[in-house]
Amino acid sequence: MSRDADGLAPPSRCRPTDELPPLLEFRDGSPVENPADWRERREELRRLLRHYVYGYAPDPPEIETTSERTPKILDGAATLVETEIAFAELPDDAPTITLAVFLPSDAVAADRSVPVLLGLNWRGNHAAVDDPAVRITDTAREHGGRDEGAAERGAAADYWCVEHVIARGYGFATFQLADVDPDSGDPADGVRPYYDGELPGPPGTEWGVLAAWAWGLQRCVDALGPMDAVRTEEIAVLGHSRCGKAALLAGATDERIGLVAPHQSGTGGMALDRDNDQEGVGDITGMFPQWFADTYAAFDGQVDRLPVDSHSLAALVAPRPLFDTAGARDYWTNPGRALDAVRAAEPVWELLGAEGIGDDLPLYGDDAITDETVGSLCHYRRETGHSLNEGYLDAVLDFADVHFDG
Ligand code: GTR
């Protein structure tokens, strides 16, 4: 189905989830009965998701980092650490990631480590805040998002709300997606060509751009983990839209990530492929073939043959906390089918002894997000279209407050 003149399509209704591929059953039909079985089933699902949807990423490379620290930015509220992440196994001309880490000044002064929100940005690190301390990278000059040349400083400040995140006692870390892959559709761009012929899967299952971005997020976790200022167990990954798909994939496939918060991630993210009357497999692989393994496009028109769906990806997060956020008017991302995926994944949290869904979902707007109301798995909506703002970030942080100690 396609969008109307406003870019919207009518909301879809929720459907029963009993026709989804079972999570607690192996491919050979044997049951998954306990946490040990789930470890094996998790590996099976992970392989299937790579094989049929996102493609096989390379094994994690060794990273090499150099960091520069600037205290007292954002009117004194934050310390900036800019970290260049390079890959020892790749040649000198290969891409590097410039990770900008913003830390609350009071925590830095007190030598106190903080939980960190890690997000993939589109327009450059310098667009996330309006402060001259943040470097405008070569990547940002070349790929400014919707702008010609580099985006304005602070162009995405109302989107990321970094000062607000800092004021709530969290760190914020981000890198520009074009550092890893500019999403041009040209397979010669970005980091992927450096791994040609070296990926673990058969031909046709090579990693797409979403898997490459997820890999980039995981390399940032490599770099953040050893930082004294960061609570290693409390790195939350967040992303909007295509970056929400990548954030979910990164969090699902990397158990070091302490909390996963995909925002309006839609098809290829939290929304189920089955019975999705918004963006179908054919729509998304037609528009963005580069995002996925080549195998995925073959399921256009026969999505019921996929051995996985988005609830399978969500379930890989269990028992860690997963907070899915959606815009009630963001029809194209199909909030109804994202909620169905959350519901369908819940038995895995329960099998692992974690509380799944707390109160009835979805939570809306100013609904309280406390340990009384939420479990480890939540779906939350605000009355918006396709956007990120302080209201959503507050909800993510409320949820993180419930699950993190820091
Ligand atoms: C849309 C696409 C969505 C979403 C979005 C975005 O055009 O259909 O799946 O990823 O782009 O990332 O902005």
UniProtKB/TrEMBL annotation:
Comp. bias (Basic and acidic residues): 25-37
Chain ranges of the 4-O-methyl-glucuronoyl methylesterase-like domain: 172-353
Record keywords: Hydrolase, Serine esterase, Signal
Statement: the UniProt record of this protein carries the keyword Hydrolase: yes
Record bears the keyword Signal: yes
Superkingdom assignment: Archaea
GO molecular function terms attached to this record: carboxylic ester hydrolase activity
Region of interest (Disordered), residue spans: 1-37
Entry-linked InterPro entries: AB_hydrolase_fold (IPR029058), GCE-like_dom (IPR054579)
Membrane spanning residue stretches: none
Name of this protein: Acetyl xylan esterase
